[in-house]
Design a protein that fits this description.
Layout lengths: L1 H8 L7 H8 L2 E6 L4 E3 L7 E7 L1 E7 L5 E8 L3 E2 L2 H6 L6 E4 L3 E7 H10 L1 H27 L2 H11 L1 H6 L2 H8 L3 H8 L1
Length: 187
């Protein structure tokens, strides 16, 4: 499991065996079943999660009870309610498993310690944050400037493996369309 994390980090920075052993010591392993919550709205968020295996959805429930899927995360992706994690406040988002999921967790204290003590790891996390922001900006622009079919085609092009794994009802919710509309797009 930790070898997956090492390969992920080393796409950005190289680590010696000693450096990686030290990095690894700051993470813990957790396993979740399908439909289980990793984070629930209202809870304090203690960790950022690296998805080793499985698939999750990040969801917000509005005051009327409607669910809004913010993101999906699968292998080799990081996910959390990052605002709550970084400010150590209660979650406004839920992170739920769509499949059985294994994650590596890092607490905020360990994250800060790693970044302070090993510049390579800080550079790695900074790059991950930049690309996360880019993805969020692209999603916002897509929602503002593209129709539902265009958003579906963008998602299909960018993440074909994700589209194969996510149930159509969840894809429809993510795209902001009905299940029937999504079925018309995919035919």
């Amino acid at each position: 499991m930790y070898e997956t994390l090492r390969k992920h980090i080393e796409k950005t920075v190289s680590l010696s065996d000693e450096e990686f052993a030290w990095v690894q010591s700051h993470f813990s392993i957790k396993k979740y079943k399908r439909y289980q919550f990793i984070i629930q709205e209202g809870e304090t968020v203690g960790y950022s999660y690296f998805i080793v295996s499985g698939l999750t959805k990040l969801v917000h429930h509005d005051v009327s009870g409607k669910s809004h899927i913010i993101a999906f995360a699968m292998e080799d992706w990081w996910e959390s309610d990052f605002f709550a994690y970084l400010t150590q406040t209660r979650a406004t988002l839920s992170l739920e498993c769509i499949e059985d999921t294994e994650v590596l967790c890092i607490s905020l204290a360990n994250y800060r310690k790693l970044c302070a003590d090993l510049q390579k790891v800080e550079a790695f996390f900074l790059e991950k944050a930049h690309f996360g922001n880019i993805a969020a900006q692209r999603r916002i622009l897509s929602l503002l400037t593209s129709n539902a079919k265009e958003r579906y085609l963008q998602l299909l092009k960018q993440y074909p493996q994700l589209v194969q794994r996510v149930p159509k009802s969840l894809l429809a919710a993510y795209l902001g369309v009905s299940r029937e509309t999504l079925s018309r797009f995919s035919n």
